[in-house]
């Protein structure tokens, strides 16, 4: 693993790469409030072993990248998507395959619309459309919202408490297909806490606006698009995956039966070969 800090004026983005730069490049984009460590090292190294150059990075306000005071994010959702292109340019790549999870998939769609020449393909995992809210699509499950209400009373300086809170959050977001791997999630949550100077800055992602001019334009996406979605996703129910497939021309849908809003190691045996196929330079 190689570390690299990409800078642009007052923005600093911490990233890590796996594999050989001559191979097909993949940029991994994690979800809201999550640093790059939520793409497990083992996942990245296995993908790199498939002759891929894999890059993961910390969003602004997570990990080792530029962060701002809690509640004072001076950027929009569109500017958070611009960071993906900063990473592509920072590695001297003409274009890259984008693999986004949850908010990462939302940002990937925006990048594909705004910078079509720098996107080789899209893979959208547990994601929703870059579109106006559809009242016919089920919202987040009430159990998820109820769990996260405890965030208001949590001591966010208490490492153990924050880690256990995050373990619980991933636990209720998991599906029934696999046994929840609490130890792996706990290890990642600890690393995530340790590399983030003030974990409260991650909540800035929940305040972001902007990007409205890109809503409802998914029919303009022409790159190969793979959608991966679990049937037991309580955060973004499976209907979101179906809606994405309907909105993006010629997209493919890989359904994970019984999986939730997660990147479970037991699903990697399906996900990784699919990513290899999706990112082949045909």
UniProtKB/TrEMBL annotation:
Segments forming domain AB hydrolase-1: 31-266
Top-rank taxon: Bacteria
One Pfam family hit: Abhydrolase_1
Any GO molecular function: hydrolase activity
Entry keywords, A to Z: Hydrolase
Listed transmembrane segments: none
PANTHER family: AB HYDROLASE-1 DOMAIN-CONTAINING PROTEIN, HYDROLASE, ALPHA/BETA FOLD FAMILY PROTEIN
Protein name (database record): Alpha/beta fold hydrolase
Origin species: Microbulbifer epialgicus
């Amino acid at each position: 693993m190689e570390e690299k800090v990409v800078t642009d004026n007052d923005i600093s983005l911490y990233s890590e790469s796996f594999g050989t730069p001559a191979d097909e490049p993949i940029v991994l984009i994690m979800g809201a409030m999550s640093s790059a460590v939520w793409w497990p090292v083992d996942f990245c190294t296995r993908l790199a072993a498939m002759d891929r150059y894999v890059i993961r990075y910390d969003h602004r306000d997570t990990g080792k990248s530029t962060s701002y005071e809690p509640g004072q994010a001076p950027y929009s959702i569109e500017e958070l998507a611009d960071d993906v292109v900063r990473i592509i340019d920072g590695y001297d790549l003409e274009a890259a395959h984008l693999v986004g999870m949850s908010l990462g998939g939302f940002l990937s769609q925006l990048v594909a619309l705004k910078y079509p020449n720098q996107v080789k393909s899209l893979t959208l995992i547990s994601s929703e459309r870059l579109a106006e809210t559809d009242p016919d699509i089920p919202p987040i499950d009430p159990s998820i919202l109820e769990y996260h209400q405890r965030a208001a009373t949590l001591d966010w300086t208490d490492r153990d408490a924050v880690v256990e809170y995050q373990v619980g959050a991933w636990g209720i977001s998991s599906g029934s297909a696999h046994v929840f791997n609490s130890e792996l999630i706990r290890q990642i949550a600890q690393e995530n806490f340790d590399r983030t100077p003030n974990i409260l800055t991650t909540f800035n992602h929940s305040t972001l606006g902007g990007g409205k001019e890109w809503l409802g334009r998914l029919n303009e996406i022409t790159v190969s698009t793979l959608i991966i979605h679990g049937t037991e996703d309580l955060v973004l129910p499976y209907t979101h995956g179906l809606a994405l497939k309907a909105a993006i021309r010629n997209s493919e849908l890989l359904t994970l039966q019984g999986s939730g809003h997660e990147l479970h190691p037991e699903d990697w045996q399906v996900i990784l070969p699919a990513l290899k196929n999706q990112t082949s330079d045909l």
